[in-house]
Write a structure and sequence with these properties.
Layout (H helix, E strand, L loop, with lengths): L1 H29 L5 H7 L4 E4 L2 E12 L10 E3 L11 E6 L4 E10 L3 E4 L12 E13 L4 E6 L5 E5 L1 E9 L4 E8 L3 E8 L4
Antiparallel strand pairs: 1-2, 2-7, 3-6, 4-5, 4-7, 5-6, 7-8, 8-9, 10-11, 11-12
Length: 197
Amino acid sequence: MNDKNTITNNQGVMESIFYAMDNLKRDLEKCGMRLNDAMVKFELEIFSNTSTSFKVVFGLQEESLTTGSCKGDTTLTIQENDYFKKKKRVLIYNIENGTFEYNQIKKAGSDTISLLFPLENDYPENSKIVVWKEVSYKFDENEKKLERRIDRGNLKTMVENVTDFDVTFFPDANALLYRLEVNKREQIRSYIILKSM
């Protein structure tokens, strides 16, 4: 009976590790997605890390403004898109004019969105608007768990009994080496190139 419980517990631990690492890899692979042009032009921070945490930013959906908008406006006109919903955070930018700003959707209609804050700049027709997402991972050394947060949501425990989590970023290669250790035994190590950076 004890052997069965041990096997079941070990399987549960391994499943939680692989689940966490799959999510982590997927989030890293999306880093900078749909933000390439804006990232290059405006030097946006789409990745940051410490030795025990990291944060990635990526776009979920992009649209072009179908009519121009002026500084002070709070309504934008775009093609109908289900991703543009209330409370979603957006990046609005125009490469040619060298302008960008962050905002939040207050209300969404079929082909218009109302912004929480008035525009700080003018944006001509075909300026871009991107719904973006921020995902962060953090190793809580006191509680011994790896946690994940989406946007401004609550931290969610991905793996418990974590004895080590290490993140090393290599800027010259745009690559990340990360390692997770659980119960001072099970270890997973991986290396990933952040292609969209």
